[in-house]
Amino acid sequence: MTDDHRRRPTDSGSIPIDPDVEVEETDTRPDRPVHLRWSALATVAVGGALGTGVRAVLAEAFPAHDGVSWVVLAINVTGAFVLGLLLEALAHRGPDVGRRRTLRLFVGTGVLGGFTTYSTLADDTAQLLDAGRWGAGSGYALLSVAAGLVAVVAGLWVAALVRPRATAAPARSADTTGGDR
């Protein structure tokens, strides 16, 4: 059997098309999925470095008070809001390809992934609980998760409010001449 008789990944009845592979890429040989491409990994890494740097500066400028890191709470809630805003805005502007995908990877996965720090939230909560501060530890954890959920919903809502709406075409009059025919 020659290569001409083999099915291409886009042929009906063959392997489902990977959503991370662009349609144009399946014409000859499918490229690697986005998460395995060096350019995408570099985009996320650069964004992550920027987000982590900003978080580190803020955490250093505003240290934890009495075992509770209010700046980490604010960072996580802000990140959740911006992520909801970004993803809602991108989702309504077209498919996740080209510049939209690059923006999602850079800002959404990279910058915001490095900026937010739920591992620090978990560590701070564990330290509060280990110190016997059950009220502060559980309250801090619950407040962080609840505020993050409210923030992401608020980001989705704000993005929906500012999204450009399609305008209806003006109604055409049946009689454009102004008189009977």
Short account of what is shown:
The chain has 181 residues and is mostly helical. It has helices spanning 38-61, 70-91, 98-115, 118-130, 134-162.
Report on the architecture of this protein.
The chain has five helices and no strands. It is mainly alpha-helical. Helix 4 runs antiparallel to helix 5.
Q: Which labels suit this protein?
A:
globular, about 180 residues, disordered N terminus, mainly alpha
How far is the N terminus from the C terminus?
70 Å
Uncertain residue segments: 1-8
Care to count the β-strands? Answer: 0
What amount of the residues lies in strands?
under 5%
Query: What structural class is derived from the secondary structure elements?
Result: mainly alpha
Helix content: 55-70%
What order do the helices and strands follow?
Answer: HHHHH
Give the overall shape.
globular
Mean pLDDT: 81
> How would a textbook summarize the main sheet?
none
> What Rg, in angstroms, do the CA atoms define?
25 Å
- Determine the number of helices (DSSP H or I, runs of at least 4 residues): 5
List the helices and strands and how they pair.
Blueprint: H1 38-61, H2 70-91, H3 98-115, H4 118-130, H5 134-162
Helix pairs in contact: 1-3, 2-3, 2-5, 4-5
